[in-house]
Write a structure and sequence with these properties.
It is built from 18 helices and 86 strands. It has about 1400 residues and is an alpha+beta fold. Helix 9 runs antiparallel to helix 10.
């Protein structure tokens, strides 16, 4: 065997550290020292490895947190009060304020009976055919077999913090448990942890002469030892004895056999201890044999499942086929599906082949069944859906006079005051739809849609106008139904007007209670439209594209560019909360709008198909904004009912819950109906010979004549009266006058006669000229349609004319009062104006202003998925959603469909406080064979042993920890609750998960793991659970409703997002969703600032502003302060806070300061190095002139050839190899760039042997690589198979004459060199003549000194007379016994 080093090499016989895991469910292969257990005939094993027997029948504290005045957790157990029966009757677990009581028949949480599984405040309680298990995300796991065995596993963060029958978890056997001020007997120790209970009376076991009694029992039972030893030391258990000493379990077996109760057989008494040894073997990394039979300790499994002593608790199911792949839990005994099958969690028929799995959506679908929904045709196959997109029309909606939903699903709110281009055929000019949005009454933010104008084939001379009062004009007012060669207009009900054209355009206009418009275009217009309704290209991210060709950051700056009249002013963004002005309005809105989300209401039948969350928000907003609150509220309810009807769900009777007045006001002889889908029945239609209509539209509600009656022109079944005049939807009776644009207008003969009140301005500043409407031609409208730079690409439409100064022909108004040539026109963007030739950056593209329009490069840009706070998501394709979930969820992976994936990211919320509010997130990043666990502010790398090796870099940038992988994946984690995932364009369309599929089409982001597009957020989220056992998630909710006392505080704190601090960002990044999430998260926290809910929410908006190019200084000593001076040494001022520092600066890792621009600017603490020391050294955390030693990021765990070694976070784990040949095993920390091979020394590459061969080893290695000499190019797995060598990565090893044991951060040695009896042997768990003995403290023997100090072990080994002895030094060197706490080293070439 040969090996090489990169800088220094150290060979070790014994490893000095064990794997420490600081996050939930990421464990070393051997974690028995994180486990305490009790089993069978009153046997106990402490965390520190002590085993004892205590026959107490009272209630006892098994383990609790004892290092604080208030216990964070406790686990109590109670046995039946029969000393001859060891059954456990109750297990009680208390974690913070949650009390869980488990008995054989039921589970109670806070004294309420629950059905399993149950999840509350980060605590999961579930059961299977053998165990009831409780798991807390705080790092506590309790497993009970509902009979006589309980196992508790704790995270290492509780080290040296516990008390109870499980001991103090300090890593030192015996001490503080059975040796305190003196020796403590088992009964005395057990009685110390009795839990007082006035409702139960029991007697403590006797403590007198306990040692003598136990010794007599041991002596009398010694005759059974041979039988027990024969069982536990049998060759079938060799995998277990290799990693876990069987001696404690042999002693338990001897005790059980000797003290067998009446009626028990040998098998009965053995079952419990064999089961416990089998369980502990699995936890130690071994593989227990299949030792149970039908007649010996049998276990009956449900369905067709089979029992295994060591199987993955994460079983693949029909709904979650990757559960086992993502599993981080330890192997356990239990019932499992046979290989090649998965558990049927849909019809619950047991274990079935995956191809027999059914699919579940609104019902259960068998294989081969077809589902057609939302433009998709999907076939169920093997539990997954195979979907094909069908040609489907685009739908755009303008609702409540201010809310827009584009063809591609983008939603935004805009309060206008002009005519706007709603939608337009930008290629063929087949249609233009303009909408007039103006203030309804007195408030500028209370806006209404007053009319729409339809122009076909760019014919501006013959516009079709539909007004809010229902009147329709085509050059003159027309009666409905009305038809031409090109279109038909009719009223399917009194509430609606329908327009249908021959070019594939359909417009549905709702009139009651407010005017709302639904525009439908067929598939032929895909990618050809523009306007406020977007471009219908199936890409959500570019829906806010202006006529000037650039995508705006906010809806307000986008909408202002689509004005159809050049004299309309730009509208500002509304930043206030309309419900904050009146508690009465807020209560009114909440009372009625909440009915839409009520799970018991009629609307609940549609929740799965149409998510009510956005409609609920709009309902509250509109109700508080509108002067006529009820009308706006009812408009939102009718919008939701229409969306449901489009899905085929008719909410028959919904107006009986809310808005019933509209059903009572039908015209005489007409009736109200919820479902009308027919052409208009009128008197005119009976005699008309013109074309009819198509009934291919979403059914509408409203009033209509009963069958057999026909409607006349008035909308009743009576003759129509003559109409008055109308302006902007305002009805003016004949003879009445109003003011229109500074003109006095009188209604006469159905038309306005107007006269100006102000003097004409005939003089204009040059080069502008005056336009006089009195001399205007037919298609001239003066300032209404004057030529401006902004109007070059927008069609103007007006029926009016306005006199005034305008630019002469050939020049355009630049919106600043100047007349310029077209090529000198400026370009607007995000509320600013840029001169011709100016360049800006939009994402990864560069845009140049040319003649008033932006010309941009078309590079594909990286996608960003953001997860922050308590369940807020923004996908790669910019869909936003939220939910309440306590499981682990797949955020993104490239294993989609039948593809073989190489990376995945799994996130999980870690709760705190009494409400279960999210305090932090645990993140698992799987890169090929490497699993990175991000939790508690740290990264832990583990090698899974399978998959490709994907290189990555780990670094800290500001407040973020960054994982940058070579496969185009970057993860930014603020070490609290925010995760940003960046994917390079090569992954477009090749990923899936909660972050969407990164294909640009935000409408299909909600695709389940079974490949079914859905609109049900909960169905989508639950399909991406990492484990099928976890309870389903819940819809996002407003916690302010539960904590109204915090609502005002939250709104005041979060208002910083909408105020002047962030004003420069408001035009680039819409603050509304961030503000809403901030209020929610701040309400959810127990007290102000808890869990950094508020700070994290504001920081999320700050980072979005950073990425939009706006740097905001928002932190103060009072608001979310960051104290960078903490990192400065006394007298130095290197570290400073920056809200938007570049992540690219000179460091020893990057001495040139050149980056790949993947990362955006990030806030946090950064070093500012002086000119004479311009480079920052990450290791020394100091500014330096030059980097003397190149520093590299620690590599993840790796395995090579016949050496098994593991490095992680600068720690070394195991290199154990070759038990069948004469080659000795070697443990290396790091090696050099040269390979070394000592063929004549039994492949024994120690320092001295290598030096004897005149080979040099560097003093401080940083990496190691080993290979087989005969097969240097063979992989590790292939080499094992080829050479038939035994390779095992375990912490307990019997090899030659030496035994080594690593136990919970401590190393114990058993050195039994029988060839030299003069050598002293170091024992912790043994004596000189017996390797199986109780743990004893360190003693002084011969000329070896051992001492324990502050729970650390220091060695002074001074035997130099016998060179055959192995010498262990921790705090000494070969020639000096003076001790310092230094890394383990070894000396003497015979030390193997």
């Amino acid at each position: 065997m040969d090996w090489r080093t990169s800088a220094l090499c150290t060979l070790l016989l014994v490893l000095t550290c064990s794997i420490q895991v600081n996050a939930k469910r990421v464990y070393a292969s051997n974690h028995v020292n994180n486990i305490c257990s009790m089993w069978g005939n009153f046997h106990f094993k402490t965390f520190d490895g002590d085993t004892y027997q205590f026959k107490g029948t009272c209630e006892y504290n098994l383990v609790s947190d004892c290092q604080s005045l208030i216990h964070q957790f406790s686990v109590h157990v109670k046995r039946t009060q029969d000393p001859d029966v060891s059954k456990i009757s109750r297990v009680s677990v208390t974690i913070n304020d949650i009390a869980v009581v488990m008995t054989e028949d039921l589970v109670m949480v806070n004294e309420e009976k629950v059905t399993l599984p149950v999840h509350i405040a980060g605590i999961l309680v579930e059961e299977n055919s053998i165990y009831t298990k409780l798991y807390s995300k705080l790092g506590i796991s309790v497993m009970w077999n509902r009979e006589d065995a309980v196992m508790v596993e704790l995270d290492s963060k509780y080290f040296n913090r516990t008390c109870g029958l499980c001991g103090d978890f300090n890593g030192i056997p015996i001490y503080n448990e059975f040796i305190q001020s003196g020796e403590v007997g088992y009964a005395e120790f057990g009685n110390m942890h009795r839990v007082p209970n006035p409702n139960h009376h029991c007697e403590d076991p006797f403590e007198d002469d306990e040692t003598d009694i136990q010794q007599n029992v041991v002596d009398s039972c010694e005759k059974h030892r041979a039988i027990c030893a024969g069982i536990f030391e049998d060759g079938d258990w060799s995998s277990c004895s290799w990693v876990l000493s069987p001696e404690p379990y042999i002693r338990a077996c001897v005790s059980d056999t000797c003290q067998r109760r009446p009626g028990e057989t040998d098998a009965t008494s053995l079952c419990s201890t064999l089961s416990e040894y089998s369980r502990q073997c699995s936890h130690a990394g071994g593989t227990p044999p299949t030792w149970r039979t039908d007649n010996f300790c049998p276990v009956k499994c449900p369905y067709n499942m089979v029992h295994s002593e060591s199987g993955s608790p994460c079983m693949d199911t029909c709904s979650h086929k990757d559960t086992n792949t993502l599993c981080e839990e330890h192997k356990v005994d239990g019932c499992f599906c046979p290989p090649g099958t998965v558990l049927d969690d849909i019809s619950y028929t047991g274990c079935i082949p995956p191809e027999q799995c059914q699919c579940k959506h609104d019902r259960i679908y068998n294989a081969g069944e077809i589902l057609r929904e939302d433009g998709e045709e999907c076939e169920c196959w093997g539990g997954n859906w195979i979907c094909t997109s069908l040609p489907s029309p685009g739908l755009c909606a303008v609702e409540e006079g201010s809310h827009f939903i584009t063809y591609d699903g983008k939603e935004f709110t805009f309060h206008g005051d002009c005519n706007y281009v709603l939608s337009k055929d930008c290629e063929g000019s087949k249609f233009i739809i303009l909408g007039q949005i103006v203030p309804c009454y007195n408030h500028e933010t209370d806006t209404c849609l007053k009319s729409i104008v339809l122009l076909l084939n760019n014919d501006k001379k013959n516009p079709l106008i539909i007004k809010a009062d229902g009147t329709v004009q085509h050059n003159a007012e027309v009666s409905l139904p009305y038809s031409t060669v090109d279109f038909t207009v009719f009223r399917p009900s009194s509430f609606h007007v329908m327009f249908q054209s021959a070019v594939g355009l359909q417009v549905q206009v709702q009139l009651v209670p407010l005017m709302q418009v639904y525009i439908t275009v067929d598939q032929s217009f895909q990618g050809k439209t523009c306007g406020l309704c977007g471009n219908f290209n199936k890409v959500l991210s570019d829906d806010l594209k202006t006529p000037q060709g650039i995508v705006e950051g906010t809806a307000i700056s986008f909408a202002n560019t689509w004005k159809a009249q050049s004299n309309c002013p730009d509208r500002p963004k509304r930043m206030d909360d309309p419900c904050s002005y009146s508690t009465d309005s807020e209560h009114f809105a909440e009372h009625w709008c909440s009915k839409m989300k009520d799970k018991e209401s009629l609307f609940a039948k549609c929740h799965a198909s149409v998510n009510p969350d956005s409609y609920y928000k709009r309902c509250k907003y509109s109700s508080c904004t509108c002067e006529k609150s009820e009308d706006c509220l009812c408009a939102v309810f009718s919008s939701y009912a229409r969306a449901c009807a489009a899905k085929g769900i008719f909410l028959q009777g919904w107006r009986q819950i809310v808005c019933d007045k509209y059903t009572e006001n039908c015209p005489v002889s007409q009736n109200y109906s919820y479902q009308l889908q027919s052409c208009q029945h009128t008197c005119l239609s009976l005699s008309s010979e013109r074309q009819g209509c198509s009934v291919d539209f979403v059914p509408v509600d409203g009033c209509a004549c009963p069958d057999g009656l026909y409607q006349d022109e008035a909308g009743h079944c009576v003759p129509m009266e003559k109409c008055p005049c109308y302006h902007n939807g305002l009805k003016v009776k004949p003879g009445r006058s109003i003011s229109i644009k500074d003109e006095h207008c009188v209604c006469m003969n159905g038309k306005f006669q107007c006269r100006s009140w102000k003097a004409r301005v005939l003089g204009c500043p040059p080069p502008k000229v005056f336009f006089n409407c009195s001399t205007a031609g037919q298609n001239e409208h003066g300032l209404e349609c004057s030529q401006t730079c902004l109007q070059q690409e927008v069609d103007c439409f007006s029926l009016d004319c306005q006199s005034g100064c305008q630019c002469p022909t050939g020049l355009l108004d630049d919106s600043r009062g100047n007349c310029v040539k077209p090529h000198d026109c400026p370009c607007p963007h995000d509320g600013h104006s840029y001169a011709a030739g100016a360049e800006i950056t939009r994402d990864c593209n560069k845009c140049t202003c040319q003649g008033g329009t932006w010309k941009c490069t078309e590079h594909k840009c990286p996608g960003v998925c953001t997860i922050y706070g308590s369940g807020h998501y923004q996908t790669f394709d910019q869909q936003r959603f939220g939910f309440r979930g306590d499981c682990s969820y797949i955020a993104v992976q490239d294993k989609c469909g039948n593809k073989t994936g190489h990376f995945s990211i799994v996130t999980e919320n870690i709760p705190c406080g009494t409400t279960g509010t999210t305090c932090s997130k645990a993140v698992d990043v799987i890169l090929g064979r490497t699993r990175l666990d991000l939790s508690d502010g740290k990264v832990t790398a583990t090698d899974t042993g399978t998959g490709p090796l994907i290189k990555y870099k780990e670094r800290k940038v500001g407040m973020y920890l960054v994982i940058d992988a070579e496969n185009g994946l970057t993860v930014l984690w603020d070490r609290i609750t925010t995760i940003r995932i960046i994917l390079q364009p090569r992954h477009m369309g090749n990923v899936c998960g909660l972050c969407g599929n990164f294909n640009g089409n935000g409408k299909d982001d909600f695709t389940t793991q079974g490949n079914l597009p859905t609109t049900n957020i909960i169905e989508f989220v639950d399909s991406w659970k990492a484990s099928s056992n976890c309870p389903d998630s819940e819809p996002d909710f407003d916690p302010c409703l539960l904590t109204p006392n915090r609502h005002t505080w939250a709104k005041i704190q979060c208002s910083i997002i909408k105020e002047v601090t962030f004003k420069d960002c408001h035009s680039k990044v819409d603050p509304t969703p961030y503000y809403e999430n901030c209020v929610k998260d701040s309400c959810a926290c127990d007290t102000g600032g808890d869990c950094e809910c508020f700070c994290t929410a504001v920081a999320a908006y700050t980072q979005a502003c950073n990425e939009a190019g706006v740097c905001v200084v928002w932190r103060t000593p009072e608001i979310c302060p960051v104290y960078c001076d903490y990192y400065n040494d006394p007298g130095y001022c290197t570290w400073h806070y920056s809200p938007c520092h570049t992540p690219c600066y000179k460091t020893c890792l990057n001495p040139e300061g050149i980056c790949n621009n993947t990362l955006p600017n990030l806030e946090g603490c950064y070093p500012e190095c002086p000119e004479d020391k311009p480079i920052f050294d990450e290791e020394s955390q100091m500014c330096v002139e030059d980097c003397l030693i190149s520093t590299t990021t620690p590599k993840p765990t790796t395995y090579h050839n016949d050496h098994n070694y593991r490095t992680n976070n600068n720690r070394i784990y195991h290199i154990i190899t070759n038990a069948q040949t004469t080659h000795r095993f070697h443990i290396f920390t790091y090696t050099t760039n040269n390979y070394y091979n000592n063929r004549n020394n039994n492949d024994f590459e120690t320092y001295e042997n290598i030096n004897k061969n005149e080979q040099q080893i560097c003093e401080q290695p940083v990496d190691i690589e080993c290979r087989g000499v005969a097969e240097p190019n063979m992989s590790f797995e292939e080499y094992i198979s080829h050479t038939k060598q035994v390779v095992q990565n375990t912490p307990w090893k019997y090899y030659n004459n030496y035994n080594y044991r690593i136990n919970n951060r401590r190393i114990y040695y058993i050195i039994t060199n029988s060839q030299n009896t003069d050598c002293f042997h170091i024992f912790t768990n043994t004596n000189k003549n017996n390797n199986h003995n109780r743990n004893t403290p360190w003693k002084y023997y011969n000329n070896y000194n051992y001492r324990i100090n502050n729970r650390r072990i220091y060695y002074i080994i001074t035997n130099t007379q016998n060179t055959h002895c192995f010498h262990i030094f921790t705090n000494t060197n070969k020639n000096n016994n003076h001790n310092r706490n230094t890394p383990w080293k070894y000396f003497n070439s015979d030390s193997d």
